[in-house]
Amino acid sequence: MIVISSVSKRYGSKEAVHDISLRVQPGEVLGLLGPNGAGKTTLLNMLTGFMAPTQGSISLDGHDLTLEPRQAKQLLGYLPEQAPLYDEMTVRDFLRFVCALRLVVKADAEAHIDEILQLTHTKEVEGRRIGNLSKGWRQRVGLAQALCGDPPILVLDEPTSGLDPRQTVEFRELVRSLSHGRTVIFSSHVLSEVQEVCTRAVILHRGRVVFDEKLQDIGKSSTYRLSARVLGSEKQLMSGVRSLPSVISAVRVPCDDKGQIALNLTCKAGGTAEQELFTLLTALEMPLMRLEAAESTLEEVFLRCTQS
After folding, report:
1. Residue 176 contacts by C-beta under 8 Å, 6 or more apart in sequence?
2. Based on the domain organization, do 71 and 151 belong to the same domain?
3. What is the distance between the alpha carbons of residues 1 and 26, in angstroms, rounded to a whole number?
4. How does residue 220 score in pLDDT terms, banded at 50, 70 and 90?
5. Are residues 138 and 7 in the same domain?
6. What element of type H or E holds 154?
7. Segment 261-285, tens digit of pLDDT
8. Is 168 in the same domain as 199?
9. Contact 83, 76 (CB under 8 A)
10. 212 neighbors 22 (Cβ within 8 angstroms)
11. How are beta strands 223-231 and 247-253 bridged, if at all?
12. pLDDT value of residue 298
């Protein structure tokens, strides 16, 4: 388990991360999102022990990264965006080297490497020099080195960057299979990727957590969407709908049915948007032809949380 408690990081007068607190449980795949400059890299650098927080603490399975760095880092497997590989080594020799660094018992190392090669589907390239491998294979080898020592915590920073579509799908499936019993932090700019792989999303903006929710609950606690089709005057309708207390935004979308106006409404959860809409349309004498509810997408949540 990862416990981040009231962590902040300052560079002189600039605060890159402000008072972040998170708990990530075993079996959970947390997607870490945010625009450039949001503080993701700083948080990952603190989480992996490359830098210490200005205030607050981070513990990995009960070991404080500042007070017990050796014990804490032994629990962590890390794949940065640029995998830390030695091009002159073969894949197996490189994994032997990493296992030695991670204090894997020498007598058990070969069997452990065989297991990792099988798990990451890199067995067929174990004898090849890393420098001769494609980007996709290099990423797999990077993940393999992160698994040396069988760490219970994995931190993956933009792990599918540069992969082709087939490699990306294969890598996602691999990450899913590795999440059982492990705690995984998955940092990515690709929202669809987070939606596919992760069980929970955290969005950073200007060094703060602005969103933290399970993906299955997105749109249920903060906002929801309505899709409506109405017969009537566009100008009168749009003005009225946008004035409704429970409607956050109203957008006109294309409609093939002649005379109908199609709208996508973003509404406050727990509000009375449907009732307000019915009352408005009755007063305007505009027939409601269709009304459907739809949950907010991760993209909509991201744009809303990072718009200011």
Report:
1. 29, 197
2. yes
3. 6
4. low
5. yes
6. strand 153-157
7. 999 998 887 779 999 999 999 999 9
8. yes
9. no
10. yes
11. unpaired
12. 85
> Which domain covers residue 265, as residue numbers?
218-305
At 128, is the pLDDT very low, low, confident or very high (cuts 50, 70, 90)? very high
What's the residue count for the chain? 308
pLDDT at position 160: 86
Claim to verify: residue 42 and residue 163 sit in the same structural domain: yes
Residues 261 and 116 in one domain: no
- For 287-307, the pLDDT digits (tens) are 999 999 866 678 878 887 887
| Contact in structure between 237 and 230 (CB atoms under 8 Å) | yes
Place of tokens 């990451």: 120
3-state SS of the chain: helix, strand, coil percent to 5? 35, 30, 35
Residue 258 CA to residue 57 CA, distance in Å, equals 61
Which residue(s) pair with 157 in the sheet? 187
Q: Which two tokens stand for residue 231?
A: 């017969």
- CATH number of the CATH domain containing 62: 3.40.50.300
Total number of domains constituting the chain: 2
Instruction: Tell me the pLDDT tens digit for each residue of 150-180.
Output: 999 999 999 887 788 888 888 888 888 888 8
Answer for the pair 91, 130: CB distance below 8 angstroms, yes or no: yes
pLDDT exceeds 60 at position 221: no
**Residue 279: CATH number of its domain:** 3.30.70.1340
Phi, psi of 250 (to 5 degrees): -135, 125
Question: In the numeric block, which tokens belong to residue 220?
Answer: 């249920």
Cα 299 to Cα 308: distance, rounded to the nearest angstrom: 16
